[in-house]
Amino acid sequence: MSEHVIRIPERFDFGYHKEFTEQYQSLLADSSVTEIELEFSRVGYLDSSALGMMVLLQKKAKSQNVSIRIRGPKESTKEILQIANFDQLFDIS
Asked: Residues 54, 90: contact at Cβ < 8 Å?
């Protein structure tokens, strides 16, 4: 399995929407992709639009049997993800 990583910037908000969507659409278009990793180590800020983009990605990925993993979130970011119950939707490590 090859690694398919989307590196999320420090501010994950609507300003990143176009780039994020383009990145995951190109990965989902590749039938060899079985897992997409969201590299979260730089993220210091995320808002509700970021959460919405992640839910949309999860739905599209699940329909293609692609798993989504969130890697390396800072403690504050991890707390936000847990409050939003994203630990139920994503593998967070």
From this structure: yes
Residues 6+ apart with CB under 8 A from 35: 1, 4, 66, 67, 68, 69
Beta bridge partners of 38: 6, 70
CB atoms within 10 A of CB 86: 19
d(CA 54, CA 91): 13
Residue among 58, 49, 7 at smallest CA distance from 28: 58
CA-closest candidate to residue 77, choices 9, 18, 17, 15:
9
Q: What is the pTM of this model?
A: 0.94
pLDDT tens per residue, range 47-75: 999 999 999 999 999 999 999 999 999 99
